[in-house]
Amino acid sequence: MPGFSSKNSDLGRIVNFFEILFRKGISLNIKVSASILNSDLSAIGAEAAKADIAGADWIHFDVMDGHFVENISYGAPVQKALSKRLFIDTHLMVTHPHTQIKLFAESGSNMITFHVESESDIDHTINKIHRAGLMAGLAIKPATPAESVFPFLEKVEMILVMTVEPGLGGQEFLAYTLPKISAIRKKADEVKPDLMIEVDGGITGDTAPLVKKAGADVLVSGSYLYKAKDMFMAMHTLK
Protein backbone atom coordinates (compact mmCIF):
# COMPACT_ATOMS: atom_id res chain seq x y z
CA MET A 1 0.00 0.00 0.00
CA PRO A 2 2.17 2.90 -1.28
CA GLY A 3 2.22 5.97 0.92
CA PHE A 4 0.97 4.23 4.06
CA SER A 5 2.96 5.75 6.92
CA SER A 6 1.46 4.51 10.21
CA LYS A 7 4.44 2.36 11.01
CA ASN A 8 3.52 2.06 14.68
CA SER A 9 -0.02 0.81 14.10
CA ASP A 10 -0.99 -2.85 13.85
CA LEU A 11 -2.42 -2.24 10.39
CA GLY A 12 0.75 -0.53 9.26
CA ARG A 13 2.87 -3.42 10.54
CA ILE A 14 0.71 -5.96 8.71
CA VAL A 15 0.75 -3.97 5.47
CA ASN A 16 4.53 -3.54 5.63
CA PHE A 17 5.00 -7.26 6.25
CA PHE A 18 2.89 -8.33 3.27
CA GLU A 19 4.52 -5.75 1.02
CA ILE A 20 7.87 -7.39 1.80
CA LEU A 21 6.45 -10.84 0.99
CA PHE A 22 4.96 -9.60 -2.27
CA ARG A 23 8.21 -8.02 -3.39
CA LYS A 24 10.19 -11.15 -2.56
CA GLY A 25 7.63 -13.47 -4.16
CA ILE A 26 7.16 -15.45 -0.95
CA SER A 27 4.03 -17.61 -0.76
CA LEU A 28 2.29 -18.32 2.54
CA ASN A 29 1.29 -21.87 1.66
CA ILE A 30 2.18 -23.36 5.05
CA LYS A 31 -0.47 -23.81 7.71
CA VAL A 32 0.31 -23.02 11.34
CA SER A 33 -1.56 -24.78 14.14
CA ALA A 34 -1.09 -22.84 17.38
CA SER A 35 -0.73 -25.14 20.38
CA ILE A 36 -2.62 -23.65 23.31
CA LEU A 37 -0.99 -26.13 25.71
CA ASN A 38 1.76 -23.52 26.01
CA SER A 39 -0.60 -20.59 26.50
CA ASP A 40 -2.00 -19.04 29.68
CA LEU A 41 -4.54 -21.76 30.44
CA SER A 42 -6.38 -19.55 32.92
CA ALA A 43 -7.57 -17.56 29.89
CA ILE A 44 -7.63 -20.31 27.27
CA GLY A 45 -10.42 -18.78 25.20
CA ALA A 46 -8.66 -15.43 24.93
CA GLU A 47 -5.35 -17.16 24.18
CA ALA A 48 -6.91 -19.10 21.30
CA ALA A 49 -8.42 -15.89 19.95
CA LYS A 50 -5.02 -14.18 20.23
CA ALA A 51 -3.46 -16.83 17.99
CA ASP A 52 -6.35 -16.56 15.55
CA ILE A 53 -5.91 -12.80 15.27
CA ALA A 54 -2.16 -13.25 14.78
CA GLY A 55 -2.83 -15.45 11.75
CA ALA A 56 -3.01 -19.05 12.99
CA ASP A 57 -4.81 -21.33 10.56
CA TRP A 58 -5.74 -23.88 13.23
CA ILE A 59 -5.79 -24.23 17.00
CA HIS A 60 -3.95 -27.33 18.19
CA PHE A 61 -5.68 -28.95 21.19
CA ASP A 62 -3.52 -31.55 22.95
CA VAL A 63 -5.38 -34.16 24.98
CA MET A 64 -3.34 -36.26 27.43
CA ASP A 65 -4.72 -39.01 29.64
CA GLY A 66 -1.88 -39.63 32.11
CA HIS A 67 -1.50 -43.15 30.75
CA PHE A 68 -0.44 -43.01 27.10
CA VAL A 69 1.76 -40.11 28.23
CA GLU A 70 2.57 -39.19 31.83
CA ASN A 71 1.04 -35.73 31.69
CA ILE A 72 -2.68 -34.89 31.97
CA SER A 73 -3.98 -31.86 30.11
CA TYR A 74 -7.66 -31.08 29.47
CA GLY A 75 -10.69 -32.68 27.87
CA ALA A 76 -13.78 -32.14 25.77
CA PRO A 77 -15.55 -29.68 28.14
CA VAL A 78 -12.61 -27.27 27.87
CA GLN A 79 -12.50 -27.61 24.09
CA LYS A 80 -16.21 -26.88 23.95
CA ALA A 81 -15.53 -23.46 25.48
CA LEU A 82 -13.44 -22.38 22.48
CA SER A 83 -14.97 -20.30 19.71
CA LYS A 84 -16.89 -22.37 17.18
CA ARG A 85 -15.46 -20.32 14.33
CA LEU A 86 -11.94 -21.65 15.01
CA PHE A 87 -10.59 -24.72 13.22
CA ILE A 88 -9.83 -27.13 16.08
CA ASP A 89 -7.01 -29.58 15.41
CA THR A 90 -7.47 -32.14 18.20
CA HIS A 91 -4.51 -34.39 19.05
CA LEU A 92 -5.45 -37.37 21.21
CA MET A 93 -2.46 -38.63 23.19
CA VAL A 94 -4.58 -41.27 24.87
CA THR A 95 -4.49 -45.05 25.15
CA HIS A 96 -8.01 -45.72 23.84
CA PRO A 97 -8.83 -42.93 21.36
CA HIS A 98 -11.80 -44.75 19.82
CA THR A 99 -13.73 -44.12 23.07
CA GLN A 100 -13.15 -40.36 22.80
CA ILE A 101 -14.27 -39.63 19.24
CA LYS A 102 -17.91 -38.83 20.00
CA LEU A 103 -16.97 -36.53 22.88
CA PHE A 104 -14.57 -34.44 20.84
CA ALA A 105 -16.73 -34.44 17.74
CA GLU A 106 -19.52 -32.93 19.84
CA SER A 107 -17.18 -30.42 21.50
CA GLY A 108 -16.05 -28.76 18.28
CA SER A 109 -13.22 -30.76 16.68
CA ASN A 110 -12.70 -30.30 12.95
CA MET A 111 -9.92 -32.88 12.78
CA ILE A 112 -9.05 -35.63 15.24
CA THR A 113 -5.59 -37.16 15.19
CA PHE A 114 -4.70 -40.23 17.24
CA HIS A 115 -1.56 -42.32 17.65
CA VAL A 116 -0.60 -45.41 15.69
CA GLU A 117 0.94 -46.62 18.99
CA SER A 118 -2.39 -46.49 20.82
CA GLU A 119 -4.39 -49.59 21.74
CA SER A 120 -7.37 -48.76 19.51
CA ASP A 121 -7.90 -50.53 16.20
CA ILE A 122 -6.60 -48.05 13.64
CA ASP A 123 -9.07 -48.74 10.81
CA HIS A 124 -12.03 -48.74 13.21
CA THR A 125 -10.95 -45.44 14.77
CA ILE A 126 -10.38 -43.75 11.40
CA ASN A 127 -13.83 -44.88 10.26
CA LYS A 128 -15.38 -43.60 13.48
CA ILE A 129 -13.83 -40.16 12.96
CA HIS A 130 -15.05 -40.02 9.36
CA ARG A 131 -18.55 -41.14 10.35
CA ALA A 132 -18.61 -38.17 12.74
CA GLY A 133 -18.03 -35.92 9.74
CA LEU A 134 -14.47 -34.96 10.67
CA MET A 135 -11.06 -35.22 9.08
CA ALA A 136 -8.82 -37.95 10.49
CA GLY A 137 -5.13 -37.86 11.26
CA LEU A 138 -2.65 -40.49 12.42
CA ALA A 139 0.29 -39.55 14.64
CA ILE A 140 3.62 -41.26 15.28
CA LYS A 141 6.19 -40.80 18.04
CA PRO A 142 9.82 -39.96 17.25
CA ALA A 143 11.03 -43.56 17.57
CA THR A 144 8.22 -45.09 15.49
CA PRO A 145 9.26 -46.01 11.91
CA ALA A 146 7.70 -44.10 9.04
CA GLU A 147 6.58 -47.41 7.51
CA SER A 148 4.09 -47.93 10.34
CA VAL A 149 1.71 -45.39 8.78
CA PHE A 150 2.16 -46.38 5.13
CA PRO A 151 -0.84 -48.79 5.09
CA PHE A 152 -3.12 -45.93 6.20
CA LEU A 153 -1.98 -43.01 4.03
CA GLU A 154 -4.91 -43.31 1.63
CA LYS A 155 -7.40 -43.52 4.51
CA VAL A 156 -6.53 -40.34 6.43
CA GLU A 157 -6.26 -36.65 5.64
CA MET A 158 -3.10 -36.05 7.65
CA ILE A 159 -0.07 -37.68 9.25
CA LEU A 160 1.35 -36.01 12.36
CA VAL A 161 5.06 -36.59 12.96
CA MET A 162 6.11 -35.87 16.53
CA THR A 163 9.48 -34.14 16.55
CA VAL A 164 9.70 -34.35 20.36
CA GLU A 165 8.51 -37.01 22.79
CA PRO A 166 4.79 -36.44 23.32
CA GLY A 167 3.46 -35.31 26.67
CA LEU A 168 5.18 -32.03 27.51
CA GLY A 169 5.50 -28.66 25.77
CA GLY A 170 8.67 -26.66 25.35
CA GLN A 171 11.02 -29.51 24.37
CA GLU A 172 13.91 -29.21 21.92
CA PHE A 173 13.46 -30.35 18.33
CA LEU A 174 14.78 -33.85 17.52
CA ALA A 175 16.64 -33.54 14.21
CA TYR A 176 16.73 -37.31 13.63
CA THR A 177 13.00 -37.17 12.79
CA LEU A 178 13.63 -35.24 9.55
CA PRO A 179 14.27 -38.33 7.34
CA LYS A 180 10.98 -39.77 8.59
CA ILE A 181 9.09 -36.71 7.35
CA SER A 182 10.79 -37.06 3.96
CA ALA A 183 9.98 -40.78 3.75
CA ILE A 184 6.30 -40.19 4.49
CA ARG A 185 6.14 -37.33 1.98
CA LYS A 186 7.72 -39.49 -0.72
CA LYS A 187 5.31 -42.36 -0.11
CA ALA A 188 2.32 -40.01 0.10
CA ASP A 189 3.24 -38.44 -3.24
CA GLU A 190 2.89 -41.92 -4.74
CA VAL A 191 -0.46 -42.87 -3.21
CA LYS A 192 -2.14 -39.66 -1.97
CA PRO A 193 -0.44 -36.42 -3.06
CA ASP A 194 -2.87 -34.18 -1.19
CA LEU A 195 -2.10 -35.81 2.17
CA MET A 196 -1.07 -33.22 4.76
CA ILE A 197 1.99 -33.80 6.94
CA GLU A 198 1.94 -32.02 10.26
CA VAL A 199 4.94 -31.70 12.59
CA ASP A 200 4.76 -31.04 16.30
CA GLY A 201 7.60 -30.31 18.70
CA GLY A 202 10.28 -27.66 18.96
CA ILE A 203 9.04 -25.72 15.93
CA THR A 204 10.64 -22.27 15.77
CA GLY A 205 11.88 -19.84 13.16
CA ASP A 206 15.06 -21.92 12.98
CA THR A 207 13.51 -25.39 12.69
CA ALA A 208 10.51 -24.53 10.50
CA PRO A 209 12.62 -24.35 7.29
CA LEU A 210 14.06 -27.79 8.06
CA VAL A 211 10.70 -29.54 8.36
CA LYS A 212 9.24 -27.65 5.39
CA LYS A 213 12.16 -28.77 3.23
CA ALA A 214 11.56 -32.35 4.42
CA GLY A 215 7.94 -32.18 3.23
CA ALA A 216 5.80 -30.83 6.08
CA ASP A 217 2.99 -28.42 5.31
CA VAL A 218 1.35 -27.95 8.75
CA LEU A 219 3.48 -26.67 11.63
CA VAL A 220 2.40 -26.98 15.26
CA SER A 221 3.99 -24.35 17.45
CA GLY A 222 3.34 -23.40 21.06
CA SER A 223 6.17 -21.95 23.10
CA TYR A 224 7.69 -20.11 20.14
CA LEU A 225 4.41 -18.31 19.48
CA TYR A 226 3.16 -17.70 22.99
CA LYS A 227 6.51 -16.50 24.35
CA ALA A 228 7.15 -14.20 21.39
CA LYS A 229 7.09 -10.44 21.98
CA ASP A 230 5.20 -10.12 18.70
CA MET A 231 3.06 -13.18 17.94
CA PHE A 232 2.06 -11.84 14.51
CA MET A 233 5.65 -11.67 13.32
CA ALA A 234 6.50 -15.04 14.90
CA MET A 235 3.49 -16.62 13.19
CA HIS A 236 4.45 -15.35 9.77
CA THR A 237 8.10 -16.17 10.28
CA LEU A 238 6.95 -19.80 10.49
CA LYS A 239 4.88 -19.42 7.34
Q: What's the β-strand tally?
A: 8
Structural shape: globular
Q: How many strands, which pairing sense, and closed or not: the largest β-sheet?
A: 8 strands, parallel, barrel
| Largest sheet: spatial strand order | 1-2-3-4-5-6-7-8
User: What is the number of helices?
Assistant: 9
N-to-C terminal Cα separation, in Å?
Answer: 21 Å
Helix content: 25-40%
Report the C-alpha radius of gyration, rounded.
Answer: 18 Å
Spans where pLDDT lies below 50 across 5 or more residues = 1-7, 20-27
Notes on the structure:
The structure is a single chain. The chain is α/β, with parallel strands linked by helices and 239 residues long. Helix content is 33%, strand content 18%. The chain has nine helices and eight strands. An eight-stranded parallel β-barrel has the order 1-2-3-4-5-6-7-8. Helix 4 links the parallel strand 3 (88-93) and strand 4. Helix 2 packs across helix 9 and helix 6 packs parallel to helix 7. The protein starts with 9 loop residues before the first helix and ends with a helix. 38% of the residues are buried.
Brief characterization of the structure:
The chain has helices at residues 10-24, 44-54, 76-80, 101-106, 122-131, 178-191, 208-214, 223-226, 231-238; strands at 31-35, 58-64, 88-93, 111-115, 135-140, 158-162, 196-200, 218-221.
What is the fold's blueprint, element by element?
Layout: H1 10-24, E1 31-35, H2 44-54, E2 58-64, H3 76-80, E3 88-93, H4 101-106, E4 111-115, H5 122-131, E5 135-140, E6 158-162, H6 178-191, E7 196-200, H7 208-214, E8 218-221, H8 223-226, H9 231-238
Parallel strand pairs: 1-2, 1-8, 2-3, 3-4, 4-5, 5-6, 6-7, 7-8
Helix pairs in contact: 2-9, 6-7
